[in-house]
Amino acid sequence: MIGKISGLLDYKGDDHVLIDVRGVGYLVYCSDRTLATLPGPGEAVTLYTDLLVREDLLQLFGFPSLLEKEWHRLLMSVQGVGAKASLAILGALGAEGVNRAIALGDWNAVKAARGIGPKTAQRVVNELKDKAPAVMALGGALAATLASDGAAGEVIEGDPASAQPQPKRVESGGAAVQSEALSALSNLGYGPGEAAGAVAQAAGDAPGADTATLIRAALKLLAPKG
């Protein structure tokens, strides 16, 4: 299983890239969104990958984050959604957008992806809605890990040992905040599905909110009406 590729970008195609890893070229298929974020030829690039194995075919699909890779694998588990349809959905919405659409039951957002009809979009939402909280929590854990790694890699002024290139600090951002809010609501007794929907809606209304603000907004959405 090839889980990640790091090398030099050789060229970009309409739906794929060729990455040179020490003289071996790997053809990796990507969404439009991912292709747009990649650097130019000759520059370093890293993609998390998922290998599709069929009797007559081996194809690599690339993603900018482990969270997006996980959504790809989940989308592929839905009947009628193949690799091409999964990349179309991720290309239209991104990992956070897919999470929000499924948590909110917004199949119209999924339908906006190229080649995705209403029946398929509804199936995606219905089959994956119970998995959205787990993926949201995964996103928070990954973001927190990246933030920790970034802090550990900071350069200390005057310390020659830390003068080598180090990973940049990565702020935990929305994924970690949403994960913390989801955990808090679960501890208050709300079900995973309704908690995920409220957190996703609150995060969409206020993308830069901190954890406390997000929890308050989600609680308002969950409060009985009338």
From TrEMBL:
Ranges for region Domain I: 1-64
CDD domains: UBA_RuvA_C
GO cellular component terms attached to this protein's record: cytoplasm; Holliday junction helicase complex; Holliday junction resolvase complex
GO molecular function: ATP binding; four-way junction DNA binding; four-way junction helicase activity
Sorted UniProt keywords: Cytoplasm, DNA damage, DNA recombination, DNA repair, DNA-binding
Stored SMART domains: HhH1
Subcellular location: Cytoplasm
Domain Helix-hairpin-helix DNA-binding motif class span(s) in chain numbering: 73-92, 108-127
Family, as annotated: Belongs to the RuvA family.
Protein name: Holliday junction branch migration complex subunit RuvA
Biological source species: Aquicoccus porphyridii
Lineage: Bacteria, Pseudomonadati, Pseudomonadota, Alphaproteobacteria, Rhodobacterales
